[in-house]
TrEMBL record:
PANTHER family: HISTIDINE BIOSYNTHESIS BIFUNCTIONAL PROTEIN (PTHR42945), HISTIDINE BIOSYNTHESIS BIFUNCTIONAL PROTEIN HIS7 (PTHR42945:SF1). InterPro entries: His_synth_HisIE, HisE, PRA-CH, PRib-ATP_PPHydrolase-like, PRib_AMP_CycHydrolase_dom, PRib_AMP_CycHydrolase_sf. Its EC number is 3.5.4.19, 3.6.1.31. The keyword Protein biosynthesis does not apply. It comes from freshwater metagenome. GO terms for cellular component: cytoplasm. Pfam families: PRA-CH (PF01502), PRA-PH (PF01503). This is Histidine biosynthesis bifunctional protein HisIE. Pathway: Amino-acid biosynthesis; L-histidine biosynthesis; L-histidine from 5-phospho-alpha-D-ribose 1-diphosphate: step 3/9; Amino-acid biosynthesis; L-histidine biosynthesis; L-histidine from 5-phospho-alpha-D-ribose 1-diphosphate: step 2/9. GO terms for molecular function: ATP binding; phosphoribosyl-AMP cyclohydrolase activity; phosphoribosyl-ATP diphosphatase activity. In the C-terminal section; belongs to the PRA-PH family. In the N-terminal section; belongs to the PRA-CH family. Keywords: Amino-acid biosynthesis, ATP-binding, Cytoplasm, Histidine biosynthesis, Hydrolase, Multifunctional enzyme, Nucleotide-binding. Residues 29-102 form the Phosphoribosyl-AMP cyclohydrolase domain. GO terms for biological process: L-histidine biosynthetic process.
Length: 204
């Protein structure tokens, strides 16, 4: 966690804090902290801000239930901006959107948004439960079929690396990742579970 004594609060006693989903890297919102909000965040584990419009401490999600559980607070090199890595309990924006940064449709998702977006689509298909609605729903209802597709796509990746172009390698790898994410979802797992294992092996 960041050390409060190293934070350079502005002349109003505030510092901007960016809330970032620790599992996906997506930026969820930006607000202001004072020293009290920082201390409350540290002591409770939930993100607290200072509301400039209301002039009071703001426990994010206290009313809606959409709290932001903090896993880490990071301070930038100048000491005047914080990043809070969080686990969101629900939408972060008051509009009901996952992120406050949803004004207008982006031309395409940022690279780090692709896998989280795909996983959310897979989860939506799982909840809908209509096998006839999509290939994803059919795979989710039949883990054996999903497993067969992972085996098939893995073989195609190996063959592409050995015999085909870089473009074909990337395309086959994309197919493999998609089917692997679907297979993991049949066990209630997602990429974050895999990433945590990889993180635990760092330096091994």
């Amino acid at each position: 966690m960041a050390n409060a004594d190293n934070i350079r609060f502005d002349d109003q006693g505030l510092v901007p804090c960016v809330a970032q989903d620790q599992a996906t890297g997506e930026v969820l919102m930006v607000a202001w902290m004072n020293r009290e909000a920082f201390d409350l965040t540290e002591s409770t584990g939930d993100l607290h801000f200072w509301s400039r419009s209301r002039g009071e401490i703001w426990h994010k999600g206290a009313t809606s239930g959409n709290t932001l559980a903090v896993t880490e607070l990071r301070l930038d090199c100048d000491g005047d901006t914080l990043v809070a890595l969080v686990d969101p309990a629900g939408p972060s924006c008051h509009t009901g959107a996952r992120s406050c940064f949803q004004d207008g449709e982006p031309d395409s998702p940022a690279i780090h948004e692709v896998l989280p977006g795909l996983e959310r689509t897979i989860s939506e298909r799982l909840i809908a439960g209509d096998q006839d609605s999509s290939w994803t729903a059919k795979l989710l209802a039949d883990p054996s079929l999903a497993g067969e597709k992972v085996e098939e796509e893995a073989e195609e990746v190996v063959r592409a690396v050995r015999e085909e172009t870089d473009e074909r390698c990337a395309e086959e790898a994309a197919d493999l990742l998609y089917h692997l994410l679907v297979l993991l979802k049949t066990r209630g797992l997602d990429f974050a579970d895999v990433a945590r294992v990889l993180a635990s092996r760092r330096g091994a």
